[in-house]
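Deliverable D4.2, example record:
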Amino acid sequence: MTKSPLPFDPIERAAENWQRTWGDATHMRLATSIMRVQQLLINAYDEALRPHGLTFARFEALALLRFSRNGALPMKVIGDRLQVHPTSVTNIVERLSAADLVQRQRNPKDGRGVLAVLTDRGREVVEAAAADLMAMDFGLAALEDGQITSVVTALSTLRRSAGDFEVEQ
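Output generated by the structure prediction step:
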């Protein structure tokens, strides 16, 4: 679903209006640029993942399970790692379960808890989906390696200052 590009840069237009109305638009320009790029990337990822029956949110959950030691994680851990509400985790896992990509099982360490367990089919799908995302360079081919490193470093600084993670000593 490719859309026609806008005939103007909406971020720059917003920045001009911001500057006239409220003053310095530097931080607004960066914040809205980050949000706009996030929307563009999610749309591109969802498009690439559609043939696998996945959205990017579902792919992230499958990838997280794939990276785990035994292909299983408690629902709470999935929510914490993906930073989504428990209701969203439940919805994601239910949809993955309906597609036979994960199974829900009682957590043997916690009788009340539920584990999401990657199925063999889920492992195949996540591998194929990851290959497709890699083939499209995650939609970041327009950036050079040095630019990518600079953006990652800057965003890590913001994430750390917001309390997203602790610095390893």
